[in-house]
Design a protein that fits this description.
Strand order of the largest sheet: 1-7-5-11-10-9-12
Structural class: mainly beta
Radius of gyration: 15 Å
Number of helices: 1
């Protein structure tokens, strides 16, 4: 059995939002980024959730592509930052992303291009902004707030 047929997300056996309770996560910026790309070609993995360990460092990338979602390709991006998580937990597609108290978007999905070094966590937003555009600084907090829907 290949990975596409054995993975419940890639095979389509698991669909829809993951509306289950999970804790808010926080990380701190360890590097702030400042570039953009029009042709990045990020391949978002099919699973819409990722387990995060305390002290892991991952990269945060923002896109203005409204259709960005698990299983899709993302090209228009702005690099935000690398950040270290202060506790472990779950990240879920749709969780709100807050930088310095301001919501900048929501998790669109995850790209594993650089694993096992780090994961790219892609944020869907109205407007592409780099970390410098957002006024972020090393040490600033980035939070991930669960969003639940009814139904």
């Amino acid at each position: 059995m290949d990975a596409k047929t054995s993975d419940p997300y890639a095979s389509g056996r698991v669909q829809g939002r993951r509306d289950w309770p999970h804790s808010e996560l926080e990380a701190r910026f360890v590097a702030v980024l400042k570039s953009t790309r029009e042709d990045r070609g990020l391949e978002l993995i099919h699973p819409a959730t990722r387990a995060i360990r305390k002290n892991e460092i991952h990269e945060f990338i923002l896109t203005d592509e409204g259709e960005a979602a698990p299983g899709k390709t993302v090209n228009r991006i702005a690099y935000v930052a690398f950040a270290e998580f202060t506790k472990g937990g779950m990240l879920v597609e749709g969780d709100k992303v807050v930088v310095n108290g301001q919501t900048i978007g929501e998790i669109a999905g995850f790209d594993e291009t650089h694993m096992p070094n780090h994961q790219n966590i892609v944020i869907r937003a109205q407007e592409r902004k780099t970390g410098l555009d957002l006024g972020a600084k090393v040490g600033d907090p980035i939070s991930f707030v669960p969003v639940f829907t009814k139904g």
